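2024-03-11 09:14:02 INFO worker-7 job=invfold-0412 stage=load source=structure_tokens
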């Protein structure tokens, strides 16, 4: 009861009491009031009491309130206590620092509270997930205090989206959203409700629409807030985008050609007509893409990938035909168009397709220098091109189109300035290329460049750049080309670990079951691939339970392994049912497998969880695929291919893994790879494809990203 209630009681008593008793009653009541007031003051709640309450709720998830989270695993218990108590306490202490005013503190606390509310009985053992999240938040708040937030946000755009509520009112929030729209405009539009009341909301939506006009047209529905804000805009580019929609609906490809329209090179009508002619549309996009930062840049990138793959898949499918037939569709392509087919089809191009396109490119270049040619295409994806040339053994031929000086200039440019990019893609392209380069002169140039760049960034105390070039120095330690001691000393500080195995205990959930999710897709070889996959589990160690839209393959001997796979003809129904089954039971896949073309891969990758230990991509793993998997599961071992995967490699590989896990063995990648090689050696086509598969311990891109992330975490 509060003090004011006692005052009212005193008034009533004084009104009715005899005068001679008033002094006694008054004394007693005043004494009582003072006691109650003192008692109330001890119960004043802390401003962040509800954070403490959430920590207490998490503490109770194991059934006991004892300041200890019991997951059933002693090592995980210690980790959980560090994250759910010590780390959260650290965030609370940081929030309470005088540098923040009370309104900002409340925003931080409310966001922390909302994140803590997501922890429940089904997921509290997934400590790594929440460690990554809360450590990221801690650094965000610290960066706000030091007025250095934007660089931190750009280190992990996906995690920044997850914590957007924490920094949505900061001065750099609009800059972050506009930069993020270059790669993830869909999320920027989807988040609109969370920043719609901020002054920058209209500017962000307008800039995102100008970057991704093809993405924004999905929101052109009556009453949609993104659509409504664009309709009221006076921006000339936005007005043209809306005109395209009003005249030709969402189906028009004129959205992608917005740069030419705004430059007066095309009318809306002409752009729509060009969009219906694949070759002309491709050429127009190429001309736009060669410019620096054109309007619609994100949409052009996505469209070029789609259209390049259309041509490359035709050539891939004709691999048994003679070249005159196989390459007939692109014989009239210009060097720029051939180059585009190569760099935008990295995830699916066959070796023979690359060779055919590259040879035609070299012929059509004629006397033009390779360096000059790359300038003509705006250096668009030039590091991808050099990496592919190195991987397919053609780099020397391309470099021979230039003078020695130009060769040196190009390779210095290839390995320089990697710290300027918001993601690791350029550094990973460089790292991947190093593994295929054998020319001693080129290696000397690259070694020298890495050393110069490392020293340059060291003098600037550029933490991110130092880490990038420190990791790249590892690639030269074993090469006897001078300066070995310097590279060895730097590499020792930034060593690339070997991810050579996964211990068996990491592959099981708390209920001692190892679960797989395999996604098949209804493409041209889906049925055959599924049938052959199912057949490999027909031995006595396994049993197959058939449902209408999916199958469950269970181990009958050894440790418990459950393999779920949708049927390809039930792509939508089967995958939806499996996801519901996993969600309803709190399961998370320990092994995930993508069985389909690369254009389906993103659908599978978005299902990765942080306890997914193995991800089999089943098609080529480009940078963005690999980095997205690692963002979702930092410890995942990734298997991919330089070309499209084949059932003749995928099936025996999956069976070897499944039997290993069932028998309680660790998954050791080199021995498993040796066994797989022996199984496919008598099938020439399978053996040829097998040589293009990249096991986890040889996946330099994945190793580079994981190690870089670990180094940056330690620097926080």
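2024-03-11 09:14:09 INFO worker-7 stage=emit residues=716
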């Amino acid at each position: 009861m509060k003090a004011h209630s006692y005052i009212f009681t005193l008034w009533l008593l004084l009104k009715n009491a005899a005068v001679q008793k008033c002094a006694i009653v008054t004394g007693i009541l005043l004494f009582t009031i003072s006691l109650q007031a003192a008692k109330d003051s001890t119960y004043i709640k802390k401003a962040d009491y509800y954070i403490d309450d959430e920590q207490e709720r998490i503490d109770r998830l194991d059934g006991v309130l004892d300041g200890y989270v019991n997951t059933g695993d002693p090592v995980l218990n210690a980790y959980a206590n560090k994250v759910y108590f010590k780390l959260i306490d650290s965030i609370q202490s940081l929030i309470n620092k005088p540098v923040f005013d009370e309104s900002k503190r409340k925003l931080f606390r409310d966001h922390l509270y909302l994140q803590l509310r997501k922890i429940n009985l089904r997921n509290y053992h997934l400590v790594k997930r929440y460690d990554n999240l809360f450590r990221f938040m801690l650094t965000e708040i610290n960066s706000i205090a030091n007025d250095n937030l934007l660089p931190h946000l750009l280190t992990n755009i996906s995690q920044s989206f997850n914590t957007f509520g924490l920094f949505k009112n900061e001065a750099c929030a609009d800059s972050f959203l506009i930069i993020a729209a270059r790669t993830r405009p869909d999320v920027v539009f989807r988040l609109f409700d969370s920043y719609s009341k901020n002054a920058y909301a209209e500017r962000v939506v307008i800039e995102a629409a100008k970057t991704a006009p093809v993405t924004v047209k999905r929101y052109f529905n009556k009453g949609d807030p993104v659509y409504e804000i664009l309709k009221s805009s006076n921006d000339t580019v936005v007005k043209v985008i809306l005109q395209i929609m009003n005249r030709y609906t969402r189906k028009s490809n004129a959205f992608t050609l917005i740069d030419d329209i705004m430059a007066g090179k095309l009318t809306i009508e002409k752009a729509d007509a060009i969009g219906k002619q694949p070759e002309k549309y491709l050429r127009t996009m190429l001309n736009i893409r060669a410019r620096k930062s054109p309007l619609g840049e994100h949409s052009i990138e996505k469209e070029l990938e789609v259209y390049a793959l259309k041509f490359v898949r035709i050539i891939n499918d004709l691999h048994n035909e003679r070249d005159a037939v196989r390459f007939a569709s692109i014989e009239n392509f210009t060097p720029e168009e051939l180059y585009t087919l190569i760099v935008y089809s990295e995830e699916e191009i066959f070796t023979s397709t690359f060779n055919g396109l590259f040879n035609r490119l070299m012929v059509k270049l004629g006397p033009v220098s390779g360096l000059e040619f790359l300038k003509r295409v705006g250096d668009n994806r030039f590091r991808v091109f050099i990496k592919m040339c190195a991987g397919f053994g053609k780099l020397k031929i391309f470099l021979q189109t230039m003078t020695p000086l130009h060769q040196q200039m190009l390779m210095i440019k290839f390995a320089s300035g990697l710290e300027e990019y918001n993601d690791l893609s350029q550094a990973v392209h460089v790292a991947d290329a190093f593994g295929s380069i054998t020319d001693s002169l080129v290696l000397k140039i690259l070694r020298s460049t890495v050393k110069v760049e490392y020293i340059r960034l060291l003098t600037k105390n550029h933490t991110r750049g130092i880490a990038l070039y420190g990791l790249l120095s590892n690639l030269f330690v074993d090469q006897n080309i001078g300066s070995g001691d310097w590279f060895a000393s730097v590499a020792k500080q930034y060593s690339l670990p070997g991810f050579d195995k996964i211990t068996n205990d990491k592959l099981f959930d708390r209920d001692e079951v190892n679960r797989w999710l395999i996604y098949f897709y209804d493409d041209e070889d889906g049925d055959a691939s599924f049938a052959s996959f199912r057949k490999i589990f027909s031995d006595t160690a396994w049993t197959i339970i058939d449902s209408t839209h999916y199958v469950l393959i269970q181990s009958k001997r050894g440790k418990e392994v459950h393999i779920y796979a949708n049927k390809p003809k039930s792509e939508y129904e089967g995958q939806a049912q499996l996801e519901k089954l996993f969600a309803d039971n709190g399961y998370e896949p320990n092994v995930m497998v993508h069985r389909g073309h690369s254009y389906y891969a993103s659908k599978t990758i978005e299902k990765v969880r942080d306890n997914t230990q193995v991800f089999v991509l089943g098609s080529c793993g480009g940078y963005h695929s690999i980095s997205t998997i690692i963002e979702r599961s930092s410890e995942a071992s990734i298997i991919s291919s330089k070309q499209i995967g084949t059932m003749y490699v995928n099936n025996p590989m999956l069976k070897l893994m499944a039997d290993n896990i069932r028998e309680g063995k660790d998954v050791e990648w080199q021995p498993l790879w040796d066994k797989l090689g022996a199984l496919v050696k008598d099938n020439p086509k399978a053996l040829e494809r097998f040589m293009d598969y990249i096991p986890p311990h040889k996946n330099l891109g994945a190793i580079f990203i994981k190690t870089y992330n670990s180094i940056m975490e330690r620097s926080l």
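2024-03-11 09:14:09 INFO worker-7 stage=report msg="The two ends are 47 Å apart (CA to CA)."
2024-03-11 09:14:10 INFO worker-7 job finished
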